[in-house]
Amino acid sequence: MKAIEIRNKYLKFFQKHGHVVIPSAPLIPENDPSVLFTTAGMQPLVPYLLGETHPSGIRLTDYQKCVRTNDIEEVGDNRHLTYFEMLGNWSLGDYFKEESVQMSFDFLTQELNIPVEKLSVTCFAGDEDCERDNVTAECWKKAGIPEERIYFFGKDDNWWIAGEEGPCGPDTEMFYDTGKPKCSEECNPSCGCGKYVEIWNNVFMEFFKDKEGKYTKLKQHNVDTGLGLERMAMLLQGKETPFETELFAPIMDKLAELQKVDNIASRRIVTEHLRSSMMITCDGGRPSNVDRGYILRRLIRRMIRHMNKLQISLDELSTLIDINVENLKEMYPALETNKETIKTVILEEKDKFVKTLTKGEKEFVKEMETVKSEGKDTIPGTMVFRLYDTYGFPPEVTEELATENGMKIDKEEFEKLFKEHQ
Ligand code: SER
Q1: Total domain count, the chain
Q2: In this model, does residue 175 exceed pLDDT 80?
Q3: What is the mean pLDDT of residues 182-197?
Q4: 223 lines ligand 1 (CB under 6 A)
Q5: Which residue minimizes the CA distance to atom 3 of ligand 1?
Q6: Angle at which helices 339-373 and 317-328 pack, to 10 degrees?
Q7: Which residue, of 190, 211, 239, is where some domain finishes?
Q8: Would the pTM count as exceeding 0.85?
């Protein structure tokens, strides 16, 4: 099942259950200065979770474009993505645990045809702020999940809040068993060994946490759910990584054809960052030296570095953008409408970076040789800072280059100098 089919099935299913389909909010938040990008489906809906009346009613469903860059360094492995799509269904003071669990169960088992044996779930174990969520566990049992596959965990696993303050609550997560062997006797959905993959998270938002850490009840109980589309496509297609799905395969294949040096991590980084930077640019993001502009710059520049690693001519970038537009336009028609702007922005940033790279890499090599000749393996923060300040060479690139050469950078010293500079 292709990602777009999963998305369409999802929206249709929840529409059938009385939900109104609302459009995805842009990646760049319109009225929320607290975040650089929309990082979860709930973000654009916060006012309504807090009690404001939503013009489309109290049962909503959507797909939301999201960007999370806190794990950007991990992209290149078999699962991390900076851009992803989250499918959501929302109760704004309407249904709660029972209906939410039943609908999730039915969607997974009847619409996506996932065998019940493949599913495990987790619920909140309870603490001084909120009681153990036996109600949700009972709902799962009633729906058809046997007791031995219902687990209870604390706030680290089964509580959801965006940031320090805001609407929050216990959640129940659904996991898909990949069929891999258990990593130990105690292997369970929270252990992260890869046997269990989280596929959906239903948050029962009935609390508000303030800055002092105090929890109060909201005036309404809400349900916020998030199903990761790329991950679900990967599982339903029996793939090991999202990069093998139709969402990424055309770019992965093209890179394999063009590369002179084989490196799967670099192919994934180029593929992932290309999609991410195209989506951000499409929603109006522009590279710069601050805030979200810096993140976009970093994504584009990291992609270029890895194209260089694969020894692919940067002139191919234009073709790669064309391939991605072609491949993704059914899901995101705006990519086609804005294709020329996206291209101009990304290619201009490429040209700027090529200049920076040429100068910076030469300087880096000189610095590295000096450090090596002194028998040391750490590039001092002063050098990292000089490369940044004089040549505009991003510290994370210095760090990556250092790592590639079996060296480290003195991050602490760099950060101190950077703060002084700010
Ligand atoms: N807010 C929850 C999440 O992002 C569920 O949508 O996982």
Answers
A1: 2
A2: yes
A3: 93
A4: no
A5: 226
A6: 130
A7: 239
A8: yes
